[in-house]
Amino acid sequence: MSTAATRLEAWEKVTGTARYAGDHHPRALAHAWPVPATVARGDITALRTEAALATPGVLAVLTHRNAPALALPEDGDPTLLVLQSPRIAHRGQVAALVVAETPQDARAGAAAIEITYTAEPHDVVLTEDHPGLYTPETANGGDPAVRERGDFDTAYRQAPVRIDRTYRVGPLHNHPMEPHTATAHWTDGRLTVHDSSQGTTTVQETLAALFGLTPADVLVTSEHVGGGFGSKGTTRPHVVLAAMAARHTGRPVRLALPRAHLTALTGHRAPTLHRIRLGATDHGELTALAHEVTTRSSTVQEFVEQAAVPARIMYTSPHSRTTHRVVRQDVPTPSWMRAPGEAPGMFALESAIDELAEACGTDPVDLRIRNEPALEPDSDRPFSSRHLVECLREGARRFDWPRLRAHGPRQDGRWLLGTGVAASTFPVLVFPSTAEAVALPDGGYLLRTNATDIGTGARTVLAQIAAEALDAPVARVSVDIGRSDLPRASVAGGSSGTSSWGWAVHEACAGLRRALAARGPGPLPAGGVRFRADTTEAVRAGSEFARHAFGAQFAQVAVDADTGEVRVRRLLGVFAAGRILNEHTARSQLTGGMIMGISMALLEHSTMDPEFGDHAERDLASYHVAVNADVPVVEAYWVEERDTRLNPMGSKGIGEIGIVGTAAAVANAVHHATGVRIRTLPVRPELLLPHLPGQPSQMTGAGPHG
């Protein structure tokens, strides 16, 4: 397998011919614009739509009074029951939808609607002692919410060195470049939707259930996706609204959510409050570890960010406690955002490990290596492969860590320089998928599976996997993906795509190769020769091994002693992520994750306005993400890892592990540069400024908790 194949879709993307959900233009296309609720809790008591309907170009106004009825299945997502009730569960919920000839007409009509509400007192402030907190049964992903091993309280009390710290990660928002868009139309009772989605099979089945159809009566396509980061991993209200509007008007309808509506309608990373207690020997060997997480969800649905789960995997400790508590509040329902659980959880854990290393007078890299477990701590299962120590050592060598740390913090004019390190982990997730391989009469091959390429290069990697299994050049393999009438495949999420789809592709192509060999020489029939594979049984059989990817990130930062501005000067990551199938796309994914980690560490800041019950930062002017000027030299490397216990390719996911340790590495580097420990993300200048040497009030040591 060539490990540096160029993306198959590169030409279409650079020439602008790649079609996204908003690039489909059926005849008589109409446009929709949502009207968001302006209270955080209450009921709609009056709706005046006459002025909107009189607005030039407006075709219809949908409200709970006239919208098509929806049928939610027993295990369905209640956030999709749009325009079904006058009840308002959070600010920004869709209260009405205007359909018009143009987007401008629809927006003007939306502005003309008058809605009266009966507002009720709302609850949106998350605190560690909120009276509504409870312990759920499970967290996201099905992990138990609570796990205890040994006698943590006694072990912690007896430990010579103890760390007891609290960390905070505020709400974070996905903000993909492409807005959440759907173009829907009905023909003879059948629904076709072009959706910006990470999984069209899920959207197909959800829409079929909501509208009382069979899945065969719904076609969903998602040829190209301009980013999602989890926010397009489940069916979202925009696609339901587009289908409702198309049914109501009898015309094709496109709905592209305005960016200001994303925070309320497309999920977000819930805020998490972390208490971490570490007990250790004088030399830094862990004897007790507790990670206790407090988070929130909405009153509509329970979603629990599994932020304490990584602590069950990372370090050896005979006594541990990992817990999650959640409170249901009058806020939009949180959901997946890149590396849910691991990203905020590892910021807290890796910051605390850094504080433990300082308390023990031990190098942070050495302390992590010293606490390397032989088995997965909370399950006692053997790891299928675990090369975290190699990542730490190789990263330290490439980063020149010993030399940089030996001299302590340095200064470059008014810039205070420091270095930091953090480890990272992400589970190897695999889901059942199917694929069909076809040998064509012209000597080519066609691969068919309903995978989704969200910009990761899935088409290319699947073609490589097929070519290797067929012993054929990649150029002879065509790939058909992104359509719900293709063989069923899992969603593009959880860094699981290549492992899940690739397994089915490998099996289909290996089976086709055997079928061709058995058939013997001679021309193929006009329809070709086909072989279909389904990995459901193999995947559900599970594994006796704990399967995870690991990595280590190293950061060098410069902090302006006069302003508190933080600049990342260098970021380096080394990862153990199984067999790397394509060097180009892998490096792109890993560096992209680390860049997102820089955003998380220094820029992404969202606040919940307690009076209005809304996230205040609702666009890219106020919710800052890293741009070119914020991105330094970013280096991504990997160690060779041959793991035969994963799937036929030996691959692990690489889409999310890059973000996991980065925020902690940056924050740890800031502490090394300044002596100030910031325990709340992002690391903002106003948190640092009062404690820097350029200011009247000088301080070193623990710093603020934030």
Q: Please give the alpha-carbon distance between the first and last residues.
A: 49 Å
User: Architecture of the domain at 21-121 and 174-265, CATH level 2?
Assistant: 2-Layer Sandwich
* Alpha plus pi helix count: 18
Strand order of the largest sheet: 3-5-1-12-9-10-11
CATH topology of the domain at 21-121 and 174-265: Aldehyde Oxidoreductase, domain 4
- Report the top-level CATH class of the domain at 21-121 and 174-265: Alpha Beta
Look at the helices and sheets and give the structural class: alpha+beta
Q: Mind summarizing the main beta sheet?
A: 7 strands, mixed
β-strand amount: 15-25%
Rg over C-alpha atoms, rounded to the nearest angstrom:
26 Å
The tally of strands reads 27
Q: Please tell me what the overall shape is.
A: globular
What is the helical fraction, as a range of percent? 25-40%
* Overall pLDDT: 96
| Uncertain ranges | 696-706
> CATH superfamily of the domain at 21-121 and 174-265, called what?
Aldehyde oxidase/xanthine dehydrogenase, molybdopterin binding domain
Structure, explained:
The chain is built from 18 helices and 27 strands. The protein is α+β, with helices and mostly antiparallel strands and 706 residues long. Among the domains are: 193 residues, Aldehyde oxidase/xanthine dehydrogenase, molybdopterin binding domain (Aldehyde Oxidoreductase, domain 4, 2-Layer Sandwich), CATH 3.30.365.10; 112 residues, 2-Layer Sandwich (Aldehyde Oxidoreductase, domain 4), CATH 3.30.365. The strands form 6 sheets. It has a 7-stranded mixed sheet, sandwiched between helices. A 6-stranded mixed sheet has the order 7-15-14-13-8-27, sandwiched between helices. The protein has a 5-stranded mixed sheet with strand order 16-17-22-23-26, sandwiched between helices. The protein starts with 9 loop residues before the first helix and ends in an 18-residue tail after the last helix.
